[in-house]
Write a structure and sequence with these properties.
Elements: H1 9-59, H2 68-71, E1 82-89, E2 92-99, E3 107-112, E4 124-129, H3 132-142, E5 150-152, E6 157-159
Antiparallel strand pairs: 1-2, 2-3, 3-4, 4-6, 5-6
Helix pairs in contact: 1-3
Length: 161
């Protein structure tokens, strides 16, 4: 009597189907976790930028325009794709952090030193989602504590401090 060793086609298809279902669930969760960790890294950088910007204005006139080099913001290793901008215009003085790639259009995190247009932003770090993925990331890093974090529906933004 001859015995066959090996797997049948149905068994192999079932295994492939299970792997496909698991990867369909795991990969988006992994990508979201990576974006969330990068967003938290940007928040930490902006907290450092806040201190540097305040120190800059202690030394210079209030109408001076700082550059990123003036603030001496050092980017940690492996953050070459991170773009830090110091912006001063009629909307006030702010520092913005955004990824140059890897979903950099999903959200923007900014520190507003002054903001005549949005006075409630003054002195705050704010996360603004640019799409539904960015909204979820801002919500994840913003939390739900009503005292520390606050969602502003009219601007689709989260206060992060």
């Amino acid at each position: 009597m001859k015995t066959n060793k090996g797997f049948t086609l149905v068994e192999i298809l079932v295994v492939v189907l299970i792997i496909g279902i698991l990867s369909a669930i795991a990969v988006p969760q992994y990508n979201r976790s990576v974006k969330k960790s990068r967003a938290m890294q940007q928040v930490i950088l902006l907290k450092s930028a806040r201190e540097s910007l305040d120190a800059f204005y202690l030394v210079h006139r209030e109408d001076a325009t700082p550059t990123r080099e003036d603030l001496e913001i050092e980017l940690p290793p492996n953050t070459d794709d991170l773009d830090i901008q110091v912006i001063k215009n009629s909307d006030g003085v702010r520092v913005a952090a955004r990824e140059k790639k890897n979903g950099g259009d999903d959200f923007v995190i900014r520190y507003f030193r002054t903001s005549p247009r949005f006075p409630e932003y003054t002195g705050r770090i704010v996360c603004t989602g640019q799409n539904s993925t960015g909204d979820k990331i801002c919500q994840d890093i913003g939390g739900t504590d009503g005292h520390k974090y606050k969602f502003i529906p009219s601007q689709n933004a989260w206060y992060l401090n």
